[in-house]
Amino acid sequence: MTTKEQKIQDFNPNSAGLADSQLFGLPFTEEESDIILLPVPWEVTVSYGSGASEGPEHIFETSAQVDLYHSEFPELWKRGIAMLESNAALHSRSNTLKEKAQQIIEAWEEGKVIEEHPHLKNLLNEINDECSDMVQFVADQTRKYLDQGKTVGLIGGDHSTPLGFLQTLSERYSNFGILHVDAHMDLRNAFEGFEYSHASIMFNAMKIHEITKLVQVGIRDFCQEESEFVESQNGRIVVHTDAEMQRASFEGELWKDRVNKIIEALPQDVYISFDIDGLDPTLCPNTGTPVPGGLSYQQATYLLSQLKAKRNIIGFDLVEVAPGEDDWNGNVGSRLLFHMCGCAAK
To answer: CB within 8 A of 268, min separation 6: which ones?
Structure first.
């Protein structure tokens, strides 16, 4: 049987990935890989653009185009990066529930009171129960690989998918923070009645006592309810809006200085939650809810690299990468993912 060491010796990182290879064209099995990526093909509560549930497969397909030599992490490929097999039953259930959720969304848009319509109320209860099961699935899977000493990342799916991962981390860390890169605050309370909405992920995360700090970067679309929730947290949430960051940049602030402020607000142990719509939408035009503005690719990778240098990264997710007519979103997403793997690797 070929060992991991033999595979490293025989593998040519300068050649094209093999057809039957793992993510990024690598030759390593799940057992041999230090970094495990959990795909969660789920987007039940999507209310605008769809396609995020196809994100893991889209990233896998485009990842073979990523050159394995990374100037910051030249030996990263030797660690082994493996994406688990996508759960087909989970994906199928997501598609079924998404159709049901559209009935709820349309009812909200028509001004209906869900509680006054037994059919809609039953649908909403079913969706919330099934989303809770998805959260438990993610918690169980991430716990399994963390127990094996692996570095674990999650590939969404929509932004509701990492909640179970955060719950698992709360079993291991009594005090950790979240670096949240996004166009949206995602602090709505049960948006449109969905307890596990993609727009409620950080509201739900704030229910986890062990998360002592949430630092949001690139925010440029939020409602009054979310702004008031931030104020109610008495400093537990720090928000760097895109408008405020750009204004400071126009007036002479260096990105390095802004990044230092971002990191200084975080505790030693940090989870990264990266919604790709935190980037400039020219880099992710097919994501579900693109918003003008956002980070450049190099701003994002600089932030992540500086975080690695100054804090302990305990896990990460990359969500809302959706395919379009071409591979552009996956192209950007897979490269960002490779960089995140380098930053999170122990």
So the answer is: 311, 312
| Residue of 91, 93, 120 lying closest to 105 (CA atoms) | 120
Whether 16 is covered by a domain: the verdict is no
Strand bridging mode 35-40 / 81-83? parallel
**Both tokens of residue 198?**
């993609």
How far is residue 300's CA from residue 317's CA, in Å, rounded to a whole number?
14
Residues near 176 by beta carbon (within 8 Å), at least 6 away in sequence: 169, 170, 210, 211, 212, 267, 269, 270, 271, 314
* Residue at 2 is within a domain: no
φ/ψ of 245, rounded to 5, equals -65, -40
* 95: containing domain: 26-344
Residues 303-315 pLDDT 10s: 999 999 999 999 9
256-299: pLDDT as tens digits: 999 999 999 999 999 999 999 999 999 999 998 899 999 999 99
The answer to whether the CB of 304 falls within 8 A of the CB of 314 is no
Residue 47 lies in a domain: yes
In the chain, the DSSP E strands lie at: 35-40, 81-83, 151-156, 176-181, 211-219, 237-241, 269-275, 312-319
Q: How far is the C-alpha of 203 from the C-alpha of 233, rounded, in Å?
A: 11
Which residue carries 């100054």 as its tokens? Answer: 310
Query: DSSP assignment, residue 40?
Result: E
Spatial distance between the Cα atoms of 35 and 128, rounded to a whole number of angstroms: 31
Supply the pLDDT for residue 140. 98
From residue 237, alpha-carbon distances to 210, 212, 214, 266, 272 in Å are: 14, 9, 5, 10, 15
Nearest-angstrom CA–CA distance, 187 and 198:
10
Structural domain tally of the chain? 1
What does pTM read for this prediction?
Answer: 0.96
Residue 316 maps to a domain: yes
Closest by Cα among 298, 47, 257 to 160: 47
> Domain with 152 in it: what CATH number?
3.40.800.10
- Residues facing residue 153 across a β-bridge: 37, 316
Q: What's the token pair of residue 296? A: 């450049």
Res. 50: pLDDT tops 90: no
